[in-house]
Amino acid sequence: MLHHKFLLTLVVLLMGVVLAACGPAAASTIAPAVNIPQISIKSTDYAFEAPAKVEAGLVSITLTNEGKEPHHVQLARLNDDVTQEQFQAALQESPEAAFPLVTFAGGAGIIDPGNSQQVTVELTPGQYVLLCFVPSHDGMPHLAKGMMAPMEVVKGSEQAEMPEIKADATIKLLDFSFALPAEVKPGQQVWKVVNEGKQVHEIAIIKLGEGRTMEDVAAFMKDPHGLPPFADAGGFQAIDPGDVGWLNLNLQPGNYVALCYVPDPATGHAHMEMGMVMPFTVK
Q1: What is the mean pLDDT of residues 135-163?
Q2: Which helix (H) or strand (E) holds 9?
Q3: How far is the CA of 104 from the CAs of 122, 163, 182, in angstroms?
Q4: pTM of the full structure
Q5: Which of 16-30, 200-214, 237-251 has the lowest mean pLDDT?
Q6: What are the DSSP calls for 64-82, one per residue?
Q7: Strands across the sheet with 177-179, in order?
Q8: For residue 195, what is the enclosing H or E element?
């Protein structure tokens, strides 16, 4: 979940921290474990191309951005007594109004055009909706431009045992901070993402361009034209408290920032405005 205006708060929180970078990060497309079904989702401006039906259980999802704008895919399971129409009506009121109607099941974080992001999620049977909250330059979120798609998750054959996913690091989502490894090395890696907070959380990752600073980010956010001074480096979309997912990354050396754009249901403020922002270096 995201609105780029919240990045202005990031600038306030991190102003004075000068970060340099060494080019955009590429997302990993290596499956984190064998014997896990894989599906592909393509994003364009403004639609998803995705399977209409998938089997429940662990699923590895690869999002490929074939549009001209950044995109992500948020999976949300509708409560059993909620229709697609009811959910859309709540979304028109505000994202916070829609929270009680769904379970947030994760998804592939924001990536720039031409890139891909792979994540692994556990899906339970039910009716889902795929969403893109990313706003265009006009401030309108992509979902308001039609970037929503239904998906049914059906009960599949029983798995003899849950496939093991080997993770290189465990990332904890807290109220309101991240617990990241003390050292993050470059290259392909799998992060286990665990929501240990009491609210819905996500981890979005941005990487500043070479020689760019947070002042450059502030200037871009005031007048968002031309190329941004950062790259959207992927991440893992919102999950409910207690849930787990896996994020595949191929990190290049440089400096990054982890963010949570999810709004607080009580105040409407993004969690990053409440301190859920963490810079980290890959070297």
Answers
A1: 86
A2: helix 7-14
A3: 11, 22, 28
A4: 0.87
A5: 16-30
A6: EE-SSS-B--EEEEEPTT-
A7: 47-49, 38-44, 57-65, 116-123, 244-251, 187-195, 169-174, 177-179
A8: strand 187-195
Tell me the two tokens of residue 204.
């979005």
How far apart are alpha carbons 274 and 255 in whole angstroms?
22
257 alpha-carbon distance from chain centroid: 13
| Rounded Cα–Cα distance for residues 180 and 122 (Å) | 22
Percent of the chain residues topping a pLDDT of 90 = 64
The string of pLDDT tens digits covering residues 48-92 is 999 999 999 999 999 999 999 999 999 999 999 999 999 989 988
Cα separation, 208 vs 194, in Å, equals 26
Q: What pLDDT score does 7 carry?
A: 43
Higher pLDDT, 6 or 254: 254
Q: Which residue has the tokens 């951005």?
A: 65
Tens digits of per-residue pLDDT, 235-251? Answer: 999 999 999 999 999 99
Is residue 59 helix, strand or coil? strand
Pairing of strands 169-174, 187-195: parallel
Measured CA to CA, the distance from residue 227 to residue 68 in angstroms comes to 12
Give whole-number Cα distances, 217 to 83, 220, 229, 231, in Å: 40, 5, 6, 11
**Cβ atoms of 240 and 273 closer than 8 Å:** no
Tokens of 17: 């921290």
Domains of the chain and CATH, by start: 4-282 (2.60.40.420)
How is residue 188 annotated by DSSP? E
Strands 38-44 and 57-65: parallel
